[in-house]
């Protein structure tokens, strides 16, 4: 039992970046308390729009009305 374990190399998977993605890390803001937001995390990506949908909500009624 005096033998040291043999190190075989890194165990972390090292795969190429997926097509259409940016493999470089984001730049950290100078202020430590400023939130970091992903590039694809936008209101438009989540389906939000800037216009109001009040008219659509007023028109959406159950079929028995």
Task: Give a description of the structure.
- The chain is low in regular secondary structure.
- Helix content is 9%, strand content 0%.
- The radius of gyration is 25 Å and the shape is elongated.
Main beta sheet: none
**Rg estimate, integer Å:** 25 Å
Instruction: Give the H and E element order.
Output: H
Helices, by number, come to 1
Essential attributes:
65 residues; little secondary structure; single chain
Question: In a nutshell, what does this entry contain?
Answer:
The protein has 65 residues and is largely without helices or strands. Helices cover 9% and strands 0% of the residues.
Secondary-structure topology with pairs:
Blueprint: H1 54-59
